[in-house]
Write a structure and sequence with these properties.
The chain is of the alpha+beta class. The protein is built from nine helices and 20 strands. The strands form four sheets. Strands 6-7-8-3-9-10 form a six-stranded mixed beta sheet, with helices on both faces. The longest helix is centred in the middle third of the chain and has 18 residues.
Length: about 350
């Protein structure tokens, strides 16, 4: 059993099943993200951990203690919301120390903890300022410090960066991960942003329609998706329609071109399947020991670090990601090209 364990959790609102049969073990000090589209149940699950919602079925255990039916103030968890939720009429020091004051902590201890927290979030000496005197990113850091000041067993973050601009989001997520590692606190992070989840997490829980699609490390989730939803939701994905030629060896074909997948396929000869291929696994030009498919460039999009070419194969269009560099010769729209990829880059998707 992990430090935080959710067993057979479900939540029903009226006739709507928001979360169904959710099971998860989180180790002490682990950073786990709930990732999925709006309405998939990730925030509802977080709120059940926090105590703002009670599960219809199932149990929630933290450090061996069943907290399923405990009120929020008895769960010893810290919560950071999407909105900063700082008290505008209080200084930063008073905001950070608010939970400790409510718990009747001695003033000397409050002052010491507030100073430590402001130092942790890299805002030492800012205690006398008010929230309106800070940037959005700084306010969110203060909200994080307030949640951490009570020394919670579990830290919960509900899309804390979604209200910030892109550059500040990148900077602040680095800060969140640094602080989490520094304090070694068990953390659950809710987001619909796959880049956030991939860059921050020890493990990711991919959710869809109230259920868990897959749990794994960022590497596993991205490179070895177990469901069609996970494969399509995480990153870009090409789907190449193929015909099964030899199920035992995993041989398929596309317009007469043999495509060995190297894995047995559970299908009959002649069955229609789709091969999933990430754009970064594809390249243009001939290459030894690779599958070669001729096509014509349909469009070229410059995305900064990569250039994405869409190649029409006459029956399918594949996106090909080319790493950008200053001497790169861009493919031209209408140009005849060859798309290549190694057999291990593709997998059969139902």
């Amino acid at each position: 059993m992990g430090f935080l364990t959710l067993t057979n959790i479900s939540k029903v609102f009226g006739n709507s099943l928001a979360v169904r049969d959710f099971n998860l073990d989180v180790e002490r000090g682990e950073f786990v993200s709930f990732l999925g589209p709006s309405g998939c149940g990730k925030t509802t699950t977080l709120r059940m951990i926090a105590g703002f919602e009670l599960p219809t079925t199932g149990t929630i255990v933290v450090n061996g203690q069943d907290i399923t039916n405990k009120p929020p103030n008895q769960r010893h968890v810290g919560m950071v919301f999407q909105s900063y939720a700082l008290f505008p009429n209080m200084t930063l020091a008073d905001n950070v120390g608010f939970g400790l004051k409510i718990a009747r902590t001695p003033k000397a201890e409050i002052d010491r903890t507030v100073a430590e927290m402001l130092d942790v979030i890299h805002l030492p000496g800012f205690g006398s300022r008010y929230p309106h005197q800070l940037s959005g990113g700084q306010q969110q850091r203060v909200a994080l410090a307030r949640a951490l000041a009570i020394h919670p067993q579990v830290l919960l973050l509900d899309e804390p960066l979604s209200a910030l601009d892109a550059k500040i989001r990148v900077e602040l997520r680095t800060e969140i991960r640094r602080i989490q590692r520094q304090l070694g606190i068990t953390t659950i992070y809710v987001t619909h942003d796959q880049e956030e989840a991939l860059s921050l997490s020890d493990r990711i829980v991919v959710m869809s329609a109230g259920k868990v699609e897959q749990i794994g490390t960022p590497f596993e989730i991205y490179n070895y998706p177990k469901t069609a939803f996970t494969a399509a939701f995480i990153g870009q994905l090409n789907m190449l329609p193929v015909t099964v030629a030899d199920p035992k060896s995993g041989l398929c074909s596309f317009k007469g071109h043999p495509i060995p997948t190297g894995q047995p396929i559970e299908a009959e000869v002649g069955a229609s399947k789709h091969l999933a291929i990430r754009p970064e696994e594809l390249a243009l030009g001939d290459a030894p020991d690779c599958i070669l498919l001729p096509g014509r460039v349909e469009s070229v999009t410059f995305l900064g670090s990569i250039v994405r070419a869409r190649v029409d194969l006459g029956g399918a269009v594949l996106a090909v990601d080319i790493f950008n560099e200053r001497l790169l010769t861009l493919p031209q729209v209408g140009e005849t090209v060859t798309v290549n990829f190694p057999p291990h880059a593709c997998w059969v998707m139902e």
